[in-house]
Amino acid sequence: MASRNAPGNRADDGAEDFESAVKEHSAALKLQSALLPAHDRRLAETHMMIALALDWVSTNKPDAETAGAAPAPAPSALAATSHSSALEHMQAAKTVLELRLAQCSAGSTPDDIAEVKNLKEVMVELDEKVRRLRVSTPLIG
Questions:
Q1: What CA–CA distances, in Å, run from 119 to 28, 39, 90?
Q2: 0.85 cut: is pTM over it?
Q3: Domain assignment of residue 22, yes or no
Q4: Which of 33, 70, 82, 115 is deepest in the core (most CB within 10 A)?
């Protein structure tokens, strides 16, 4: 049996792995959402992992020029909606962080103060990622 990642296999392009990542992280998010409070940073992290994988799927095309590779397949159903879904997951991550910020802002311990500072920095980075994703062009055909 040939290795899944042997040269010339379609898994080499990485798209299948990113699509699998979206499915696996989405399943994890469903469980986390049922078990964790809405302000838990792990929810934001999972939303970001999904968003990054969706962004990759929407902007990367399999390399049909690879020696011995089959022609590039048509974009998957996931690729067709992944750009807007990536934005939705980034916004969801920001919402989680905003809830966490509100919770930590109510505290006055050194840990709360440090986390507020960290959350504000992370949110600035997240806002920049959202801005870049909004101006990027998804792969179409």
A1: 23, 12, 15
A2: no
A3: yes
A4: 82
Number of domains in the chain: 1
138: helix, coil or strand?
Answer: coil
For residues 49-56, give the mean pLDDT: 92
Residue 7: inside a domain = no
Which residue has better confidence, 60 or 125? 125
Domain that residue 94 falls in: 13-135
Query: DSSP label at 5?
Result: T
In angstroms and rounded to an integer, the radius of gyration of the C-alpha atoms of the chain is 18
3-class secondary structure for 33-74?
HHHCCCCCHHHHHHHHHHHHHHHHHHHCCCCCCCCCCCCCCC
* Contacts for 134 with CB less than 8 Å, ≥ 6 apart: 87
